[in-house]
Write a structure and sequence with these properties.
Layout (H helix, E strand, L loop, with lengths): L24 H36 L3 H4 L6 H4 L7 H8 L1 H34 L5 H10 L9 H11 L5 H25 L3 H9 L4 H12 L1 H16 L3 H6 L6 H12 L3 H21 L1 H13 L1
Helix pairs in contact: 1-14, 4-14, 5-8, 5-11, 5-13, 6-8, 8-11, 8-15, 11-14, 11-15, 13-14
Length: about 300
């Protein structure tokens, strides 16, 4: 009886490891050298852009009797000259302190109100069906091109007759009215990109529209809401023309600084720290929430 030898199973040939292409050092150096002129140009532009702000900061730290005699660059030669007396004098000035508080009330108050109203309207335009929805949204888009200057005189007359002139509420309502078209447009585009299945599942589970809005839409729309809040806060904080038109005793910080400059001219030891503080606060807010600002604008532009 013939015996058969066992047949060895074929062995698989080893698979060669994928070859990773590495960039040679010479190519990397050449690529970086090609970018160097552009990077140097951007650094120079950034430094030139920061010179006025940096000069304002150093001016606010100079003694009052030296501001009009030497330039702010004198602090580089004599750092011991720097003092905080100008900031102490600014916070001792009741007009500037009241103006700072008024600015914070107007900026925060109108931002909160705008975000709430724009979010509700954006959700309605994105997911609720009602007669004339598309036509009304076209009207909202059309309001984006209306400059606020054309409404100053009509609103001035309206505020005079309703008692809203020279009040914080009047300034808040004006900023909300002119910020709503952009806010509704931004949030509607963002909310429309939320998956429909999420909302349908919530409705099947018995959730009301209010519950869906506060428990689903607001958390999911946080990037767009944050970007809108930052944009509105910055615009309101830096406003001058609206505050000049509708305020007399109620003055934000920009108007108070303008009044100091117009009345006293040489009162730079108060104007410089107040101006830098007016610049630093919105800049700090923007830098703190810059990530949300960029995410929200990009998301609202493509969805």
């Amino acid at each position: 009886m013939a015996s058969t030898a066992p047949i060895d199973a074929p062995t698989a040939s080893p698979v060669p490891a994928p070859r990773v292409r590495t960039e040679s050092r010479a190519a990397w150096v050449a690529r970086q050298a090609a970018r160097l002129p552009f990077q140097i140009l951007m650094i120079i532009i950034a430094l030139l852009w920061l010179v006025p702000t940096f000069g304002l900061l150093l001016t606010s730290l100079m003694p009052a009797d030296q501001i009009s005699e030497v330039g702010w660059w004198k602090l580089f030669a004599e750092p011991s000259m720097a003092t905080l007396e100008n900031y102490r004098a600014m916070f001792d000035n009741s007009d500037l302190v009241d103006a700072l508080i008024t600015t914070a009330i107007i900026a925060v108050g109108n931002t909160v109100l705008l975000v709430l109203v724009a979010a509700l309207a954006g959700y309605a335009f994105a997911w609720l069906k009602f007669p004339g929805r598309d036509a009304l949204f076209v009207v909202v888009i059309g309001l984006l091109v209306v400059p606020l200057q054309v409404a100053l005189i009509p609103i001035f007359s309206l505020y005079n007759s309703t008692g809203l002139f020279d009040t914080e509420l009047g300034l808040i309502l004006f900023h909300v009215a002119f910020g709503l078209p952009f806010g509704i447009f931004l949030l509607r585009n963002f909310f429309a990109g939320i998956p429909k299945d999420i909302l349908e599942s919530a409705r099947i589970d018995g959730a009301s529209e209010a519950r869906i809005f506060f428990r689903l839409i607001l958390p999911l729309g946080l990037p767009a809401i944050a970007s809108l809040a930052i944009f509105q806060f910055l615009w309101t904080w830096n406003d001058l023309i609206v505050a000049l038109t509708f305020g007399r005793d109620v003055q934000p910080l920009t108007v108070a600084i303008f009044s100091q400059l117009r009345q006293f001219g040489s009162n730079i030891e108060l104007i410089a720290p107040a101006s830098f503080l007016s610049l630093a606060i919105p800049l700090a807010v923007f830098l703190a929430f810059q990530r949300y600002f960029v995410q929200g604008l990009l998301a609202g532009s493509v969805k």
